[in-house]
Amino acid sequence: MGERMRPEVVVLLGGRIRAVRRERGLSVVGLAGLSGVSRRMLTQIELGQANPSVATVDRIAAALGTTFPALAGVLGEGPPDGVEVWSAPNGSWARLLQAVETGEVFVEMWKWHLVAGDRYRASPIGGAPASMAHVLRGRLRVRTGEGERYVGAGGSARIESTADHTFEAGSDAADFLWVVTMPRTTA
């Protein structure tokens, strides 16, 4: 499984990126220069025709002076169940429940459900401190460049955010919360 988003979230984010870009008086070329995302990719994202990674949307959001959670609509009084950002055909999903911004960082809380044998690979987050996963049900396998470990229900794991890491469900489904602290970047 890759780290691709649900189609309806892609359309939502594309529309919000376009609106914020226009509000800031930026052209697509200008935003491409600030974000490091190609003009072609930005156009496809704005039209809901490309399915970018969360890391790509984070770069675009930073260039616009905002954040992924703000674009997704989960800051402040967001939807009570969050926004289902990712899902897989066999029933796995991830919801961004809430986010809190401070001057230097913002904190995202995600709820995950991975079905047996399913996995999700997360990209590194430059400059981010470690994240935390807390298993609510089942058994979660966390693989990093340093190795792997298993976390059972009621257990928690600290995960370095500056390297690739993969979450995998074991022989049963795994439900877990993932708390990520992101550095506040400016374009």
UniProtKB/TrEMBL annotation:
<keyword id="KW-0805">Transcription regulation</keyword>
<dbReference type="InterPro" id="IPR050807">
    <property type="entry name" value="TransReg_Diox_bact_type"/>
</dbReference>
<dbReference type="InterPro" id="IPR014710">
    <property type="entry name" value="RmlC-like_jellyroll"/>
</dbReference>
<dbReference type="Pfam" id="PF01381">
    <property type="entry name" value="HTH_3"/>
</dbReference>
<dbReference type="GO" id="GO:0003677">
    <property type="term" value="F:DNA binding"/>
</dbReference>
<keyword id="KW-0804">Transcription</keyword>
<dbReference type="GO" id="GO:0005829">
    <property type="term" value="C:cytosol"/>
</dbReference>
<feature type="domain" description="HTH cro/C1-type">
    <location>
        <begin position="17"/>
        <end position="71"/>
    </location>
</feature>
<protein>
    <submittedName>
        <fullName>Helix-turn-helix</fullName>
    </submittedName>
</protein>
<dbReference type="InterPro" id="IPR010982">
    <property type="entry name" value="Lambda_DNA-bd_dom_sf"/>
</dbReference>
<dbReference type="GO" id="GO:0003700">
    <property type="term" value="F:DNA-binding transcription factor activity"/>
</dbReference>
<dbReference type="InterPro" id="IPR011051">
    <property type="entry name" value="RmlC_Cupin_sf"/>
</dbReference>
<dbReference type="InterPro" id="IPR001387">
    <property type="entry name" value="Cro/C1-type_HTH"/>
</dbReference>
<keyword id="KW-0238">DNA-binding</keyword>
